[in-house]
Design brief:
Number of strands: 0
CATH topology of the largest domain: MetI-like fold
CATH class of the largest domain: Mainly Alpha
Subcellular location: Cell membrane
GO cellular component, one term: plasma membrane
Distance between the termini: 48 Å
Domain ABC transmembrane type-1: 93-306
Keywords: Cell membrane, Membrane, Transmembrane, Transmembrane helix, Transport
Mean pLDDT: 86
CATH superfamily of the largest domain: MetI-like
CATH architecture of the largest domain: Orthogonal Bundle
Largest sheet: none
Membrane topology: Multi-pass membrane protein
Length: 324
């Protein structure tokens, strides 16, 4: 009896182990097959519309090619050297960086202030939100044409300033090299401020009202509750907004191209307008491809560094919450 009972536990695991192992292997194979079928279309599109064009641009950038005929004039890295040695391109990089810095310094506080205001219970709050967000719905081309007409000499902006007794502020808004970049930044702010406000409003909606109420019960003022409770919890949304704003500033093209073509005297040239001007208008496709690769490397490097040092704890926290 004892021998029979002791033998049963020894034979039972060996008889069921192959079935369990085979089931797990089939489950893993099925999961991998499902992931492959689901991800394959997206990966093919990503490769076809992102990776392949990047590789083609990198290949073209090694040639002095005007877009016609075969690629025969191999110049190596000369296009990159010529780009960085040119004063106009270095100035274009500086203009993009100025727009990015102004976006963080000006647009971010303005977006947070408007979002906090529109998050309160105000009469006509829905209408105010619509008014703030409406410019973002307009296309860049429509926005550029509207402001181009308003900023012309004697246009709507000049008439408003003169009517308000501020005629001494009237300038050649798009013809003065000293102020044209900042004029464009005003237009950019008017166009994109709505996106920042809506994004921050979504973040504010995710903050429990009980936290602010608890801070008020502890004697905190409205500003102290906002400073020490709301803004820290709004941090992940703010960091996402900064990332999108900087990337958009580095790739700025439409508004500048339509309103100034990068002028006057290259005072508003950006990397994208410089690329289009040389690559398509002057038929320097090899050189334009080099500029495109430089722009991609700058954006990609910023994205990696920002992900590593700013967004990592947000993504790690989201992953931890999803797993738990």
């Amino acid at each position: 009896m004892s021998t029979a009972t002791s033998a049963r536990p020894m034979t039972a695991p060996s008889s069921h182990a192959p079935r369990a192992g085979g089931t797990r292997r089939r489950s893993r194979t099925r999961t991998r097959l499902e992931l492959t079928l689901l991800l394959a279309p997206a990966l093919l599109l990503f490769a076809g519309f992102v990776l392949v064009p990047i590789g083609v641009a990198g290949f073209y950038s090694l040639y002095a090619w005007n877009g016609f005929g075969p690629l025969t004039d191999f110049v190596g890295l000369d296009n990159y050297v010529d780009a960085f040695s040119g004063e106009v391109f270095r100035g274009a990089i500086g203009h993009n960086l100025i727009i990015a810095a102004l976006s963080i310094v000006v647009q971010l506080p303005l977006s947070i202030s408007l979002a906090l205001l529109l998050n309160r219970k105000l009469r006509g709050r829905t209408f105010l939100r619509m008014v703030v967000f409406a410019p973002y719905v307009l296309s860049e081309a429509v926005t550029a044409v509207i402001w181009l007409l308003m900023l012309q000499p004697g246009g709507f902006v000049d008439q408003v300033l003169r009517g308000a007794g501020l005629g001494w502020l009237v300038r050649q808004w798009l013809a003065d090299p000293k102020i044209v970049l900042y004029t464009l930044f005003v237009v950019i702010t008017w166009k994109y401020i709505g996106f920042g406000v809506i994004l921050l409003l979504a973040g504010l909606q995710g903050i429990p009202a009980e936290l602010r109420e608890a801070a008020a019960l502890d004697g905190a003022t409205s500003w102290q509750a906002t400073r020490h409770v709301v803004l820290p919890l709004l941090g992940p949304t703010i960091r996402v907004w900064i990332f999108l704003s900087v990337i958009g500033s580095l790739q700025l093209f439409d508004l500048v191209w339509i309103m100034t073509l990068g002028g006057p005297a290259n005072a508003s040239t950006t990397m994208a307008t410089y690329l289009i001007d040389h690559g398509f208008k002057r038929y320097e496709f090899g050189f334009g491809s080099a500029v495109a690769v430089i722009l991609f490397v700058i954006c990609f490097t910023f994205a990696l560094l920002y992900q590593r040092f700013a967004l990592r704890r947000d993504t790690d926290g989201a992953l931890t919450r999803a797993v738990s």
